[in-house]
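Retro notes
What went well: the complex prediction finally ran end to end.
Inputs used:
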Amino acid sequence: MTAAASTSRNRRGRPGYDRQQVLEAAVRIFNQQGYDATSVSDIAASLGFAKSALYHHFESKASILELALDDALSGLESALDSAVRDNGSASAQLRQFVHSAVGVLTARLPQVMLLLRVRGNSEVELAALQRRRAFDQRVAMIVAAAQEEGMLRKEIDASVATRLIFGMINSLVEWYRPDGPVDAAELADDVLLATFDGLQTHP
Amino acid sequence: MTAAASTSRNRRGRPGYDRQQVLEAAVRIFNQQGYDATSVSDIAASLGFAKSALYHHFESKASILELALDDALSGLESALDSAVRDNGSASAQLRQFVHSAVGVLTARLPQVMLLLRVRGNSEVELAALQRRRAFDQRVAMIVAAAQEEGMLRKEIDASVATRLIFGMINSLVEWYRPDGPVDAAELADDVLLATFDGLQTHP
DNA sequence: GTCTATATTAGGATAGAC
DNA sequence: GTCTATCCTAATATAGAC
């Protein structure tokens, strides 16, 4: 299957969805209603077919979630890897990662939205949470190192600073929409400015 | 019933829970597992009794949610009312509200946590969302006015600034715990500093 | 204030036809 | 790739006893 096949509608004749299309529809509804509040029938109904048809594409409801969560985590992890690889100082790594994290979040909004709402109610969710915790710890280390380098104020504890920065970033899923009025690239700049320089004039 | 009766355990003899105790337990589990993933049996089990006993205290699962959401919204609304009443300029109103919003969130953590996760899946949730939207709009107006007053940088759109500030604040529910290492009062100061002055040293 | 049924509906998932 | 029919389990809620 070509990469383009996922979003383009170049299949002729019968309806017939492929795995990727079903995945996208499912994730959309998971995000609208919440994973637990979404039934397999809801997903099927949104595609206009019976719920049993879903099991042709996926083993289970949980396996759909698993795929989406893996996508979100992979995106964030590789952005972090790049930031570490591309920069010598922790301060520079942090700056780049904050910027690129906004990029990942806006580019893979549905998957990241799902990830951020996971509560640990199943094996799949627990595995994702564990992977996310490992990731968060790597980020926290970089923030602490950036503070040591003198980039960040000492009055605020590094772990609190980490939570505040990425709390702000993660909260973007609550309102940012690709088709909305806010540009993703500008938003990344705004977040950098807000977190490090503050929103106030002439500090 | 006295106000103290809610948390104090001055009832002798038999177990027997009152409405407030059941409410607290229910909200705790709603937050752990998510509202939709929580069954009435889960709540009952956590209190050590049969699920039918729950219907002695509450009409339905939804009515428990309703009560908690009302508590969260009332707390936030009255903090905003006070901030507006106590200050002349929008800048001062905003500063006070940011500070007190952190206070409300830490003081009524379980209820606010629940509020922030509502998706609109029922009448009760839709009503809460609508009330929250009205509240958010009031806040956005104040941020815009503070920007007009010259308090906030003009490079960042007022509505984006509002989202970023309260995104950071709301994200506290994801990690702040009353019994954790972070002090609520210090946290409110940290958030003020982070949002308005930024996390970077010597700006 | 809590219990043991029980009614009723919806959920995830499978079988096998088209 | 989708359908209808069906299984089985779990969920909300009620009835009525203690």
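What we learned: The CA atoms of residues 50 and 56 of chain B lie 11 Å apart.
What to try next: split runs per interface for comparison.
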